[in-house]
Sequence to fold (172 residues):
Amino acid sequence: MVKIKTPVKEEIINRLKIGDSIEIYGKIFTGRDAVLPVLRQRIEEGKIDELILKLNGAIIMHAGFSVAGFGPTTSGKESIQGSMPALARAGVKIHLGKGSLKEETIETLNRFKSIFAVTPPVTALLMKKVKSTHVIAFEHEGMEAMHEIEVEGLPAIVAIAHGKSIFNLESR
Fold:
């Protein structure tokens, strides 16, 4: 088990390999279909500073958040996967979600020394790991608003790292 504290240092990313179990400690961001394309656009337009986000070394979980809980959404959806290259280029080191990604996304994550990890889709387990949360951007999106969540021991498994994927046996 590799314990990772945010912000994530590049040395940690360099040591991780697919199949590694990780536990995350510190602040992470949530975002999914409604928010990530907007965030991508702001990065590409150079307007990311308008938001109170420090993306260098950040972790973004592809999830919504509500009082009922939070859990990963499918990361392979175009609205989410399409935002990952811009987020990785902006400094996001770990993308959390579920499902497989396209080969071109795997290559882009590798180029920007970013990884993808999957989390168990069990909201009750994940809620026990939350210490605090607040909406940080896009409040009008409701449960899809971007939250900053402080977690303690959030579990995940490295699914894509250094150009390799657990979803593609040929890349192992």
Remarks:
- Helices lie at 10-15, 36-44, 78-81, 84-89, 103-111, 123-127.
- The chain has one domain: 2-166.
